[in-house]
Amino acid sequence: MQNHLLQMMALVAMEQPLSLSAEHIRTEKLKVLQAIAPLAADDVVLGQYSRSQVGCGYLEEPSVRNKASCTETFAAAVLHIDNPRWAGVPFVLKAAQAVTENKVELRIQFHGVPGAVATLRSCEANELVVRVQPEEAIYWKVQSKVPGLRSDQVEQVRMDLLYSRLARKLERKLPQAYERLLLEVIANDHSHFVSPEEQLEAWRIFTPALHHLRDAKLPPHRYPVGSRGPAAADQLAKRYGMRKFGGGLTPYVMPFKPSHTPGVVPASRWS
Fold first, then answer.
1. Do strands 127-133 and 137-145 pair parallel, antiparallel, or not at all (unpaired)?
2. The whole model's pTM is what?
3. Are strands 44-50 and 221-224 parallel, antiparallel or unpaired?
4. Mean of the per-residue pLDDT values of the chain
């Protein structure tokens, strides 16, 4: 989370760089990281998977020798960027093992249109999803009128752009992640590598919460193997006007007023 997910967050939130050079990209990412407030201890939920009908729990794994281990296998955190563009917008980072799906993706969730007619106020949220793994894709989850005579029925549909399907159509091979990085090492291209300044900012963001959790010695929340995670994560989501974190059909998020930026209504959501 402190490394990969934070980098994805910075790439989403940064302003357009002056060019695609490594220096200009790193400069814009660093501006984002410098504007992120340190993670508050009450904005993070840690968990550890336990036995269910799907499989054994973490403490029952043969490789785990300490059967009283409090090692976390789930983390959900909410970060805030204190700048004019993103003030009041919660950025949700979530990483987990032994949950319902094995995937890496980012989700940008949009508010509903202000003043929507009553019959459309309960529509699901529109989302832009960028999936990194297991199959690269970009897709919209949008509201569409249900075919038929009625004009007040809408449903959420997906508009897909699957990179793998496009690559097969064009008879091109998609490079693996480390293929691209190794090529960039040979070409002395630092665009996708983290600078020392970014690393320092990343630890500045997470270290206070990590120290607090270490000193408090709180056990991680339990969640069954194959579930979406601990219930405490959904409680954290509700604090920010969402029903849950992650995929699925999600209702429109409700405006909220974060304590550090009073009176600001968020414009979008990221997870």
1. antiparallel
2. 0.79
3. parallel
4. 83
